[in-house]
Structure formats: structure tokens, C-alpha cells
């Protein structure tokens, strides 16, 4: 698959959950391979995944999506260490790690895309919500030079 | 603590190739599970971890007699499961229920949830679904909800042992976390014993009291979960742990 994608000599490689169905040891090989190809061929890599652990391995920058919108964007290390959007924070707390305990699921479920809430799409599930959150879709607010989040609390 | 399940030298081989129309009478044989032995105590979560094809699913299915072992012994609650027949066997199998990875494929699409779970309302409410679910079909639910239906169905006969085969592997991160916490609560509430099959060490780390690491049909290492995760003795276990992409913790 990777060979096929590279045969036309692209400058951008889009990988959609390329390791999701794989065992961890094979996943590691594929991630290492993609990283080597990226450097050797000077590729831009757009990596789509639900696994934040994988993000921390491969990404320079990360955009977190929820219900069709980017809700946080920034340097991967910073977003994972200091997430600013409540959804990113919830996702991190819900991720399993090798340490037991402290697993906190995000309550509720993702909204139907045909019936999105009028304001912030995460508002119905957000523990920090305020009345303003339901009024309008929040803009991406700049936190740092290259870190932004779509939340009025930022 | 009291032992609920003892497994000795369980073995299963399959033939590959050499099908009905083959010239050769016998294809090559391979061993899916090669002499697994372990005991599970009441109330514990015994996790079996390994990569695809290591035999963990075959092992799980042999325990509840979905696959017939070639040899070995399975004792459940003091009784020899492989020699029991008829009513006696069914009575024991009611005590052991299974939760599957793909909740959709394992739920009858033509039955309403009320029929699948039969005697359902209290248990459906307990796993986080509502009364409305009774009249709906499996395809009308999300993956997480379907897994809740699978769990409700497994609980209805009030089993002692639940064999969960990759119960959260097909689910999203936050939904998977919800299901893991539900399994934890149910274990306490109903004094359940779990055999938890997974390829994911981080998932297993949340629930397991003991972990068995499996590779090509054999147990590589068995021990208390904390010890296996912190101080593995075998290279293969170390390799598996090292391949887990870890999150930076704030």
C-alpha cells in the first residue's frame, strides 16, 4: 500500500488510520518506515488517527477534530501535554495507558451530524459549559503563536 | 481465594491446505494452542495478551466449548467440562458467558433487543440503555451501545465467569473507556470473574489482576499484572511493552 502510494512520486502522503488494524509491533515498524520515508523523500505527511499515543510518535503538529470541526490545533507535544480544549482534555483522560486507573471516559456520545447543537458541538457533553457556549460556534482562539483552540474559556 | 477455573495442557491443532478436493489426504498441521495451563480465581480478571494469530481467541472459545479441544482438561467450579454432556454441560455453560469483539456480528439482526436480551429491562438499564431500546434492532445502535447490549445478554443468566474477547477493540477511545469502566463496575456488583482477551496492553492494564502473554500458541509469561507491566522477565513481553506508543503525561 505504501509503495503504491509513493509510486507517483508525491510530495504529500495522506495516511488514514494506516496502523489501526495492526498489532503493536507491526505498527511500530510501519510508523518507523513512514518516518524514514518522510525524511528521505521530503514528504509532507497528513496522518489521520484516533490514537493519541500514535500522534505523539509521528506528529510535529496536530489538529483535533470533533463533529466536523477542528477544535484545537498546535505543536503535538504541547497539545498533548497541555491540552486547552475540554474535548482534547477528555480524550486524553479517556485514553488507556500502561498505568492502571485514572481512566475517565468523556460522558455522553458524539452528536448526530445532521442535528448539531447551535453553538459549540461539544457543549452538551462539556463539564465546563456556560450559557454562552450554546449561543454561537466559538472561533479558534490563539493561545500561543501556533497553538489555538475553539473554546470561549481559552 | 477459591479457584473457579483450571485449565491443563489444552491443545488444538488445525489442518491448513489439503481440503476436500486436495490430492493429498492431509495438509500441513499447525498448532493454534499448544498446552496452555492456568487457573483463575473467583473475582479476578485474568488477561490473555498476544498478537494476531497467537491463539488467544481459539483458547477463549475452547473454554466455553465453542471450539472442541484436541486434548487437555478444563475444570469449572470443580466439574470436568470436557466429559460433561447434555443438561449437565448446559447448566455449566450458563455460568460462563462470552462478550465478543464485534458486537454487530454477534447480535441477531432480525431480533429486537428486547428479544435478544429476554427478561431485559433491569439489565438494560444497568448497562446504560433505556426502555426504548427494547423495541429496536441492533443496526439502530452505535458500536458502544451494541457492546452494552452484548454485555446485557451475557449477564442475563447470572454467570460466574465472563470471557471477553477484545470487547473494546472496535470502539472509539472515549466509548471504549466507558465500556471498560462499565465492565469494572459490573465485576464488583455481580462478583464476576473475567477472562479478558486482548491484543492491547494498555487496555489490559486497566482491568487485569494477572496477565498471560501468549505467542504462537504458548504462554510466554504469566504473572501478576503489575509485575508483568513493570518488570517483565521475557524479551517478548519487553518487546510488546516497548512497542506501545505512550502519551506524554502532563
Question: Largest sheet of chain B, described in full?
Answer: 6 strands, mixed
Largest interface, chains and sizes: A-B, 35 and 34 residues
CATH superfamily of the largest domain in chain B: P-loop containing nucleotide triphosphate hydrolases
In the sheet with the most strands of chain B, the strands line up as 6-7-8-3-9-10
Low-confidence stretches of chain A: none
Shape of chain A: globular
Query: Strands of the largest sheet of chain A, in order across it?
Result: 3-4-6-5
Instruction: Provide the CATH topology of the largest domain in chain B.
Output: Rossmann fold
| Structural class estimated from helices and strands of chain A | alpha+beta
**Element order of chain A: H for helix, E for strand:** HEHEHEEHHEE
What is the 3D shape of chain B?
A: globular
* Individual helix count of chain B: 9
The total of beta strands of chain B comes to 10
Order of helices and strands of chain B: EEEHEEHEHHHEHEHEEHH
What does it look like?
Chain A is of the alpha+beta class and 154 residues long. Helices cover 29% and strands 19% of the residues of chain A. In chain A, the strands form two sheets. A four-stranded antiparallel sheet of chain A has the order 3-4-6-5. Chain A has a two-stranded parallel sheet with strand order 1-2. In chain A, strand 1, helix 2 (24-40) and strand 2 (44-48) form a beta-alpha-beta unit. Chain A is globular and about 50 Å long. Chain B has helices at residues 56-63, 86-94, 113-117, 121-126, 143-155, 173-190, 201-207, 225-230, 235-242; strands spanning 3-16, 28-41, 45-49, 71-76, 79-80, 96-99, 161-165, 193-198, 210-215, 218-224. In chain B, 43% of the residues are buried. Chain B starts with a strand and ends in an 8-residue tail after the last helix. Chain B folds into two domains: 3-95 and 161-243, P-loop containing nucleotide triphosphate hydrolases (Rossmann fold), CATH 3.40.50; 103-158, no CATH class. Chain B is built from nine helices and ten strands. Chain B has a six-stranded mixed sheet with strand order 6-7-8-3-9-10, with helices on both faces. In chain B, strands 2-1-4-5 form a four-stranded antiparallel sheet, with helices on one face. With 250 residues, chain B is of the alpha/beta class. The A-B interface holds A 23-28, 31, 50-54, 56-57, 77, 80-83, 90-92, 94-101, 103-106, 109 and B 51-52, 142, 144, 172-178, 180-181, 199-203, 205-206, 225-226, 229, 239-241, 243-250.
Amino acid at each position: 500500500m505504501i509503495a503504491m502510494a509513493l509510486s507517483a512520486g508525491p510530495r504529500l502522503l495522506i495516511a488514514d488510520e494506516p496502523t489501526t488494524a495492526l498489532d503493536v509491533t507491526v505498527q511500530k515498524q510501519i510508523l518507523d518506515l513512514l518516518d524514514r520515508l518522510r525524511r528521505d523523500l521530503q514528504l509532507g505527511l497528513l496522518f489521520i488517527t484516533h490514537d493519541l499515543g500514535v500522534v505523539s510518535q509521528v506528529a510535529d503538529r496536530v489538529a483535533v477534530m470533533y463533529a466536523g470541526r477542528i477544535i484545537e490545533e498546535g505543536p503535538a507535544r504541547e497539545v498533548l501535554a497541555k491540552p486547552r480544549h475540554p474535548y482534547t482534555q477528555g480524550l486524553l483522560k479517556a485514553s488507556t495507558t500502561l498505568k492502571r486507573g485514572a481512566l475517565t471516559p468523556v460522558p455522553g456520545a458524539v452528536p448526530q451530524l445532521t442535528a448539531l447543537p447551535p453553538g459549540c458541538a461539544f457543549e452538551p457533553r462539556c463539564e465546563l459549559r456556560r450559557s454562552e457556549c450554546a449561543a454561537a460556534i466559538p472561533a479558534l482562539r490563539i493561545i500561543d503563536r501556533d497553538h489555538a483552540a475553539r473554546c470561549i474559556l481559552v | 481465594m477459591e479457584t473457579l477455573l483450571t485449565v491443563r495442557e489444552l491443545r488444538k491443532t488445525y489442518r491448513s491446505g489439503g481440503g476436500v478436493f486436495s490430492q493429498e489426504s492431509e495438509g500441513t498441521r499447525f498448532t493454534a494452542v499448544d498446552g496452555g495451563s492456568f487457573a483463575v480465581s473467583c473475582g479476578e480478571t485474568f488477561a490473555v495478551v498476544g498478537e494476531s494469530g497467537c491463539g488467544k481467541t481459539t483458547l477463549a472459545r475452547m473454554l466455553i466449548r465453542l471450539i472442541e479441544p484436541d486434548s487437555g482438561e478444563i475444570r469449572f467450579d470443580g466439574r470436568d467440562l470436557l466429559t460433561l454432556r447434555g443438561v449437565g454441560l448446559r447448566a455449566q455453560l450458563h455460568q460462563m458467558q462470552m462478550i465478543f469483539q464485534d458486537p454487530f456480528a454477534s447480535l441477531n439482526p432480525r431480533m429486537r433487543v428486547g428479544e435478544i436480551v429476554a427478561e431485559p429491562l433491569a439489565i438494560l438499564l444497568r448497562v446504560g440503555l433505556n426502555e426504548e431500546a427494547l423495541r429496536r434492532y441492533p443496526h439502530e445502535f452505535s458500536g458502544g451501545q451494541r457492546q452494552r447490549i452484548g454485555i446485557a445478554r451475557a449477564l442475563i443468566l447470572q454467570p460466574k465467569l465472563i470471557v471477553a474477547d477484545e470487547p473494546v477493540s472496535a470502539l472509539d477511545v472515549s466509548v471504549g473507556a466507558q465500556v471498560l469502566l462499565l465492565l469494572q463496575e459490573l465485576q464488583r456488583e455481580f462478583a464476576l470473574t473475567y477472562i479478558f482477551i486482548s491484543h492491547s496492553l494498555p487496555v489490559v492494564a486497566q482491568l487485569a489482576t494477572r496477565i498471560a502473554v501468549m505467542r504462537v500458541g504458548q504462554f510466554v509469561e504469566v504473572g501478576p499484572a503489575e509485575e508483568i507491566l513493570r518488570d517483565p522477565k521475557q524479551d517478548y513481553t519487553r518487546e510488546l511493552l516497548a512497542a506501545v506508543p505512550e502519551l506524554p503525561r502532563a
